[in-house]
Amino acid sequence: MTDQRHPPGRRNRAVAITAALALGGAALLGTAVSAAPAAAAPSGATIDTVDYVADTYGIDDSVIETVTFERFEWLLGQQGRFAFLIGGAHDDRTEATIAAIDAEAKKAGVEQVFTFDPKLDGESLDLRTTTNPDVAPLWSRLVTNALSKDTQTPFDGTDDPYFFVYDASHTEGGVEDRIVSALTAPVTTAQLAAPAALEAYRAEVAALFASAGELTTSSQFAFTSSAVNAKHLKDYKGADAYGGATILSDEDSDWRVETVTYPELVHLLESDGDFVLFFGGTWCHNTRAVLKHVNAEAVANDVEKVYFFDLRLDGASSNDLHIRDTGSEFADFYGDLVTTYLPNLVTQYVPGVSGQVEFYPGGDRSQPLATAKKLQVPYVLEYERGRVVDGKAAPVVRQWIHDNGDGTYKEYMTEWWYVIDKPGRYESRPDPAGLAAQLAFADEAIAALDTFFGDIGEGTTVEPTTPPTTPPATPPATTPPATGEKPSEVFGSVAVTGDLRPGGRITVTGSGLAEGTSGFTVEIRSTPQTLGSVSTDADGAFTFNGTIPASIPAGAHTIAVTIDGVTVASASITVSADTTSSASSAGLADTGAGFAGPLTWTAIALLISAAAVITIARVRARSAA
Q1: Which of 137, 169, 262, 374 lies at a 20 to 30 A Cα distance from 20?
Q2: Cβ neighbours of residue 195 under 8 Å, at least 6 residues apart?
Q3: Nearest CA-CA partner of 400 in 476, 311, 464, 466
Q4: What is residue 486's predicted lDDT score, i.e. its pLDDT?
């Protein structure tokens, strides 16, 4: 099956979400978060958790653990021997086999079986079959770098394993043989309906475990600490001014932040209870700045789980995989969620004024475009499905955001080094006032986390954090450059290459902009349409891949890069209606010139070893639960 631009499954998901609206008992109308009146529906006394595997497959106390694409790829590169199940709730083979696999794993004393669903939305966006140019390479990368490196049952698209034990260092006769044992034959629920057939299948699973030898366990903390520390080190080279080489350490090993997939997030939002959600990503330096403190607050306030979701479905890319961007083919994944489940969310961006996400409900382009509020990461909120205030749906009980005091808000995007009172780029370009503003804003962000976690589960809503009595000179939404200028005061250049036709794929590269800054928007004009958002690296550069909207007419247009409503770079392009097209030359910024960063960064990709937090668990006898 080939993934289509608007697959039926996405329309079905929209229908399911619409049904969820009806079940909620109230029209989900957007309202700003404010102090809740006494008549508000009471919340639970404690923060709840959900068991996705139990609710989806009916398996209690399961050893099955779902993993995101980012974590799955990371696991494939680790030392150890892991059991993997490929599939999800919309896969008949998974439905047929997962209970038997779980039961036999428990019998064998296996503590973890990792399951990865190649359908990133759980329904239709299948890595293995999609033709989307941003998504298709992900599966090819997994196969090329890991899954094809086997002598007997390699992944080659013909008879791929669906349940297997994998060891990145295993060889056979001096040749890489990473898949130690595997099951490949098609299996359906109907085939296993007879008791004898089910017993025969369970015997196959038991034999697989028996031949696997020692299996390895790996925690959420092992993955998160490794990813966070490696990316921080890659970006800032361990410089003391930027907080040193690591952010997370063994002292954080009581880890409460659990990464979830898109299907898990939808399941949670449709579940009764009181939950803490955290939107962010290990790729995001602003998320890394507060991740340690979010976990510490969860520990201090007895929150068992903070559910962590990355709006970049591969944990990295700013192309179509970033579902929060208007330019993404899959913006409906984000838009449907926010409009359905988070109607009273407040954000820094004001729809219709300073930014929003446009999407086709359910991915169906025969429907009119809809809009959703655009949140930036990191973003923490308390969620309680079915909660109503003043007759309106208000499932967002409270959220971690700075209140500007004038009806607008500023999301807490600070940096790790400011959180721990380090100067960052101000060390080489002193600006006492600029540094003081950054440190004050970081202090406020951490204090606001303390307030947020201290108040959750109390059944009342508090207003977002109010400004301090004496606000910082420049309360930053993003990190300003070393000179103390605002990001909107630093102008750079931008170049555009690719297929300059309506619906064509383009690459936009920028340089000379504010360094290490989030929140840039890429637009096409004359009538502005947002293509997506980007962050600059430590040199003030970025690369963005996007799509020219199909509605754009042929002729002269402009690709513009904006931040805080100011255009900081632009390039002229000519959109052609022809079947062939070439890109314009590099465009220059409207005014001004970029500046050189304080350091020259080299491209390294070190990984911090997670060996200290990965333990080898010997297979031991244990009765089935």
Answers
A1: 374
A2: none
A3: 464
A4: 63
- Give the model's pLDDT for residue 78: 98
Is the sign of the CA dihedral 147, 152, 156, 161 positive or negative? negative
Sign of CA dihedral 261, 264, 269, 274: negative
- Spans of the chain below 50 pLDDT: 1-45, 460-463, 465-484, 581-625
Task: Check: CB of residue 124 under 8 Å from CB of residue 9.
Answer: yes
In this prediction, residue 608 carries a pLDDT of 36
Backbone φ and ψ for 566, nearest 5 degrees, come out as -110, 130
| DSSP code, position 217 | E
165 beta partners:
83, 181
Phi, psi for 526 (deg, rounded to 5): -90, -55
Provide the 10 A C-beta neighbour count for residue 193: 10
- Prior bond of 378 cis (ω within 30°): yes
Predicted confidence at residue 487, as pLDDT, reads 73
Contact status, residue 375 vs residue 411, Cβ threshold 8 Å: yes
Residue 485: its pLDDT value, please?
A: 53
Which three-class secondary structure state does DSSP give residue 253?
A: coil
Instruction: Give 363: exposed, middle or buried? Use CB within 10 Å, 0-12, 13-18, 19+.
Output: buried
Do 257 and 295 meet the contact criterion of CB atoms below 8 Å apart? yes
Give just the sign of the alpha carbon dihedral 113, 119, 120, 122. negative
Estimate the crossing angle of helix 331-341 against helix 8-23, to 10 degrees.
10
The set of residues, in sequence order, having a beta carbon less than 8 Å from that of 269 and lying 6+ positions away, is 337, 340, 341, 383, 385
Q: Hey, CA dihedral for 85, 86, 92, 93, is it positive or negative? A: negative
Q: What is the pLDDT of residue 362?
A: 95
Residue 508 structure tokens: 């936009």
Instruction: Give the DSSP per-residue string, 59-81.
Output: -TT--EEE--HHHHHHHHTSSSE
Q: In the prediction, which pLDDT does 384 show?
A: 97
Concatenating the DSSP letter of every residue in 18-67 gives HHHHHHTTS--------PPPTTSPPPPSS-----HHHHHH--TT--EEE-
Residue whose C-alpha is closest to residue 463's, from 42, 31, 34? 34
